[in-house]
Amino acid sequence: MLAAQEIAGRRQLLERVSDARLRSDALFNVVRSDFLYERPIRERHRIIFYVGHLEAFDWNLLHENVLGLKSFHPEFDRLFAFGIDPVEGGLPSDQPSDWPSREAVHDYVIRIRTALDEKLADGSLESSGQGRDGFQLDTLLNVALEHRLMHVETLAYMLHQLPLDRKLDRNAAHENQPTLAAAPLTHGMVEIPSGLANLGLARDGEVFGWDNEYEVHTKRVPAFGIDQYEVTNGQYLAFMAAGGYETRAFWSDEDWNWKTAQEVSHPVFWSKGRGGWLYRAMFEEVALPLDWPVYVSHAEAMAYARWAGKSLPSEEQWHRAAYGSPDGSERNYPWGSETPNSSLGNFDFSRWNPTPVNSFPAGRSAFGVHDLVGNGWEWTSTVFAPFPGFKPFPFYPGYSANFFDGKHFAMKGGSPRTGACMLRPTFRNWFQAHYQYVYAGFRCVNQ
User: Fold this and answer.
1) Residue 126: is its pLDDT beyond 60?
2) Helices (DSSP H) in 331-409: which residue ranges?
3) How many CB atoms lie within 10 A of CB 146?
4) Hey, CA dihedral for 101, 106, 112, 114, is it positive or negative?
5) Contact predicate 54/24, CB 8 Å
6) Cα(191)–Cα(127) distance, integer angstroms
7) Distance between alpha carbon 195 and the CA centroid of its chain, in Å?
8) CA-CA distances (angstroms) from residue 332 to 3, 122, 426?
9) pLDDT of 366-413, one tens digit each?
10) For residue 180, what pLDDT band results from cuts at 50, 70 and 90?
11) pLDDT surpasses 50 at 38
């Protein structure tokens, strides 16, 4: 039996799962019902898949091996089990008619939620919750929670690409923070002295982490300089004006071939208007905000860095700039130990869109580097790979291991649509080099 404190902790965890459901439901409600079968990003599933997927994931994770529940719709359990990694080639070719009706999917979702909630409320809270492969129920609930929140972010950038007339303008209801007017920007670099970066989580710790976050290890990082702010739309515009997309020397062979074949000539969040460049915000197109971070693929970020005579930071360089301190200690967050809140950065669903990169001076790191957490994930030069001592989760063996292929790059930080629980220093995100759609920017380091 669990102690009273442990039961209270589990109840709080279940409340967080319930809150995450509300977030995903609200996001699906942004889409006009006639367009749930659209595919805003060609490499991804249709929107209707994700309506069923979030519940199917929770059900497949918990129902039989943990809670002793029998499946009532095995076909849907399989259909909605797995998403698509945005790979090049082999694009999905399914048609809307290949998918179940909205009503059938909605019924599936409701039945799963009802069954799981009733089981978790019938006394399971007081049990030790020893579940699948020896993992505690709390671990699996954290997996379900963060998986859903990851998809809430993925769905947001998908919906950014959905034509505006196919969305309901819920800007007033969701944009619950005022527009920020930041001071004029003065770009520069911050010198980071040599020191240690403590990467990863200890297995005997109390903080939840995904399999790729283990185990803790230390790397010595030589001194380097890093951009004080993320690269902005305005800076990237200068790269474009200098012929950045037309200059072969700024691109690797693979990246150049991709850019040429796909006719990539600007960031995917930009469009050309009569009076100049426009930015595709969630509910409208606006004149390009020059002081917002630019969102680009890894390939585009690398090209800019070469043009600037710099490079992208490694994962350990980024970590040192974000969490290190002049006295050699490390912080829980760039700003210190204070719980993340809206005065410290643009994260945890507070806004649909970016803010100026100097909007949150209170969130800067001990070295004076701004905007490291929130406002856009940041590409690193580090190929996504296992840490020493890596062990895949037995209940989700492919979560990380399927992407240790040399084609994915680690990203750090977080975006406006990243949940606060995933702002921990050890959380790692990753995507392939030619994927333009994620809320990801970058900053440079001296070579």
Assistant:
1) no
2) 398-401
3) 19
4) negative
5) yes
6) 52
7) 28
8) 28, 37, 10
9) 999 999 999 999 999 999 999 999 999 999 999 999 999 999 999 999
10) low
11) yes
> Which two tokens mark 174?
């969701």
Structure tokens at 355: 């803010």
Is the pLDDT score of 125 beyond 80? no
Cβ(187)–Cβ(228) under 8 Å? Answer: yes
Secondary structure letter of residue 192 according to DSSP: E
Could you tell me the two tokens for 117? Answer: 């909630």
CA dist., res. 193 & res. 93, Å (int): 51
| Tens digit of each residue's pLDDT (9 = 90 or more) over 44-60 | 999 999 999 999 999 99
Residue 422 DSSP one-character state: G
How are the residues of the chain apportioned to helix, strand and coil, as percentages rounded to the nearest 5? 35, 15, 50
E-state strands within 131-237:
189-192, 195-199, 217-221, 224-227
What is the set of domains in the chain, with CATH numbers? 4-168 (1.20.120.450), 189-232+269-446 (3.90.1580.10)
Q: Spell out the residues 6+ positions from residue 192 whose beta carbon is closer than 8 angstroms to its own.
A: 221, 223, 224, 225, 226, 317, 320, 321, 324, 367, 369
Distance CA 317, CA 313 (A): 6
The partner residues of 408 in beta bridges, in order of sequence, read 432
Q: Residue 54 phi/psi, 5° resolution?
A: -60, -40
The answer to whether 312 touches 445, Cβ cutoff 8 Å, is: yes
- Measured CA distances, 115 to 61, 106, 119 (Å): 13, 14, 6
Cα separation, 312 vs 227, whole angstroms: 10
Residue with tokens 């049990």: 127
φ, ψ of residue 241 in degrees (nearest 5): -65, -25
In this structure, the number of other CB atoms found within 10 A of the CB of residue 266 comes to 17
